[in-house]
Amino acid sequence: MPSGMPDLFTRTIPVVQLRRLDFLLGESTGIQILHPPGLPTVQCPAIYSGTREDCERFLKIDFFCEMPGFGIDTYRALTTWSDKQQCYRTWVFCASKEEPMYMEGNLEDDRLVMVSDPWPMPWGLQRVRSVFTPLEDGGMRYVADFWQPEGYHTYCTITFNPLGAG
Prior knowledge:
10-stranded antiparallel barrel; two-stranded antiparallel ribbon
């Protein structure tokens, strides 16, 4: 950059904050267990891939599952850190939804806890709390809860096992 040029183009990449999420990187498989309100429990295979975007400004998470009676559903999430808001921010794009889900959150101990804005679900607008917990074997446990007036209720659980783990 020429001397005297304003610092307008300097990228501020939250490297330290994003490195704290390294446990989200890698490829894993698991069984998704869904507890839809008023319906029987559903189990289906799930695949997870977490990578860094080339610019290193975002973590990119791709999630695929094959739901009985529905077919394949895909999600792509982009997560970054906001210095201004002092929190992680995530946008979740879903093949079956027109608008992305927006979430904010932070690390609580070793877990990433994110809470969404209200998002349309088959049961109406839902506020979703997603908790990502690293496991000692390199895997990860994911739990999604719906908010209800009496508190959060678990909707989805998945234990992801790293590919190649024996």
